Amino acid sequence: MEPEETDSARGLAQLEGYLLWNAELEDARRRAGCFTDQLPWLTTAQREDVERVYMAERLAASQAMLVRISARATALRGEYTRRYRRLRKRCVTTAVVAVGAVTGVCTAVAFLTR
Q1: How far is CA 8 from CA 4, 73, 108, in A?
Q2: Model's pTM, two decimal places?
Q3: Is 36 exposed, middle or buried (0-12, 13-18, 19+ CB in 10 A)?
Q4: How far apart are CA 37 and CA 47, in angstroms?
């Protein structure tokens, strides 16, 4: 990839992350509101405190999950890269051996038919 494409891809990934995190914030806010709606006896200040704590806990859990997913994705990328390299090496080796065998057979047939 060219540097401009890499920068564009990085920028799009950052924008996607920003949008996804804002969606998570909005979902946490909505769920906090639904939770406090089930507690009608709360005062306005109490409701705000409960919503704030609920959102903080939810966002901390979301962030921890994202960290775990990111670490696993990185580990899988390394594992699959190693597997791909091994497979590619085996395929190239097999192709070289097959071409060598076919060349040898053709040479032998040509030599024997003379």
Answers
A1: 6, 21, 56
A2: 0.66
A3: middle
A4: 9
Name the residue type at position 38: Q
**pLDDT < 70: residue spans in the chain:** 1-3
Q: Which amino acid is at 77?
A: R
Measure the CA–CA gap between 2 and 85, rounded to whole angstroms. 23
Give the tens place of pLDDT for each residue, 77-103.
Answer: 999 999 999 999 999 999 999 999 999
Q: What is the 3-state secondary structure (H, E, C) of the chain?
A: CCHHHHHHHHHHHHHHHHHHHHHHHHHHHHHHHHHHHCCCCCCHHHHHHHHHHHHHHHHHHHHHHHHHHHHHHHHHHHHHHHHHHHHHHHHHHHHHHHHHHHHHHHHHHHHHCC
What is the pLDDT at residue 1? 59
Cβ proximity of 32 and 46 under 8 Å: no
Structure tokens belonging to residue 21? 């995190």
